[in-house]
Give the backbone structure.
Amino acid sequence: MSTRLRVVSFGLGPIGLAAARLALQKSSIELVGAIDVDPAKIGKDLGDLLELSRKTGVVVRGDADAALRELQPDAMLHCTSSFLPVVKDQLLLAARHGVDVVSSTEELLVPALQHRALAQELDAAARRGGATILGTGVNPGFAMDFVAIVASAVTFEVTGVQCTRVVDAGTRRLPLQKKVGAGLSPAEFEQQMATGRFGHIGMRESVALVAQALGFGDLKIEQTVEPVLATEARQTPFLTVQKGKVAGIRNHGYGRRAGQTVVHLDLSMYVGAPDPRDEVVLASTPPVHVLWKGGIAGDQATAAILVNNLHGVAAAAPGLATVLDVAPPRLCR
Amino acid sequence: MSTRLRVVSFGLGPIGLAAARLALQKSSIELVGAIDVDPAKIGKDLGDLLELSRKTGVVVRGDADAALRELQPDAMLHCTSSFLPVVKDQLLLAARHGVDVVSSTEELLVPALQHRALAQELDAAARRGGATILGTGVNPGFAMDFVAIVASAVTFEVTGVQCTRVVDAGTRRLPLQKKVGAGLSPAEFEQQMATGRFGHIGMRESVALVAQALGFGDLKIEQTVEPVLATEARQTPFLTVQKGKVAGIRNHGYGRRAGQTVVHLDLSMYVGAPDPRDEVVLASTPPVHVLWKGGIAGDQATAAILVNNLHGVAAAAPGLATVLDVAPPRLCR
């Protein structure tokens, strides 16, 4: 890598900040700008937001259009929302400026699954602007889909996929603990679930990616989400879960054909979940059983995989891409 | 996939035949030709060589140039030799005919490592002919290199890589058992080793691929190979290993910088090896420990990964590619 990739960070929540912090440490990346809509952040030096002991010279801007026009970055780290309709205009803007995007937007993993027309519009805009747009992350994007897909490369045939991910939410950041409802009463949990913006986002997309990648055809995709109640009181660095309150979630994703489950993704994220791990079992010839001991470390890993995909996305053909269309992800320096 | 990929099989030894057999089963692939230099195979229908109960209509040809000219295939499965100088003319021929290649040639994993000028010549020819040439397989190509590299995608930083592969050679095909010296006396083993065509080929390439991919820079690459002697008599379906004779090999690969081992690949392939597995441990932030239970099943998996890379190679940009340059491998139908 002779020249550094010029990158802008759009979205400075916990994941966006972690990704920006990491990008600042990479010799192959030059972080040239930061964008957020939060008035409390606009105008601040990124070093202050990251609680570094130094200024970075990167001052947070609120006007994304002006920032991209002036900075003309190569690529964008994009961490603003889980939902494609919410980020649509942000992505169209990047496309118009010819800026490649690595996004944590969960629905972007398989954009056409829930937003077919929007996906077509984004793809056309990206091609027109010469930009590649990729949605990825640890989950969705890696642990419960990509790992299973790549593992299939050493098989003749796969008839079923089972992925199990167990995360002890007590070891994770506060937003994750809140996202899985830790500390809520069962009734509060149900209210939150009804908003559709709660719990793990992207389960359907993971099922769809596996189904498409392995040629299972159109599966009927379903999911269930239920609270896991604490059987004893649990304390995290951020909150307390009383006995009988919600410790977190159990989220199953299913891909079914003719009533048979072909893809089953089983996600547990709750305070005190035992034996954290990622596990992929393929019903295949030859059989495959991959165990990621201790599990893929949530927040750090998400920031890492976003930054580590920047060079791959910069090298990929323009358009709305998936993790199957860009070069295999790997550590960048 | 609307049109089938038209594929020729070049090299019909055990791996080449297994790959051809698998290619015949794929609806997205049309096996249109087969090539071998062995007079005992030329003129035979592939169905007879594969001991199928039917003719395939694919008759083995000896003249590769004529076969490629007449058949004009999209891609080639190439399984003729481990050594790049041996296959040079075969690959140049494919390049000239614009035929993409997925090859099991171990030295092709990182072609410039041992054959820099030859790699440049092949790359130029491939670009000129509009062909992509890829060397891959299970080992090298996946178990002790690619898996570790992809696992690094969820890390901030990697300071060391340790891969362990344990294969019970007693469960593998006869050529593998012979390749690791099963049944030989220690003296015969030393004689065989001196030929340089014995044991596992590609260890240096795996170390080099990991080092390049993870940005470790130029490491000093070394390997050791030693026989593992049978502590009791062992019987395989093909041969007997007497107590005190060679059961197989232990092959270490090292990538070192300033005397420190940064990459350590530890391969055991011997009759009766306990706890067969593939294991990747990264000294990284966050730490990574991946265990492939039972290990990646040797011969079947090698045939599979060759066939499963055909579509990715057909879609890739022309030139001499590595597994890091093409789309992530996955099952094809």
Notes: Chain B touches chain A through 47 residues (CB under 8 Å). Residues 158 and 231 of chain B are 38 Å apart (CA to CA). The first helix of chain B runs from residue 14 to 25.
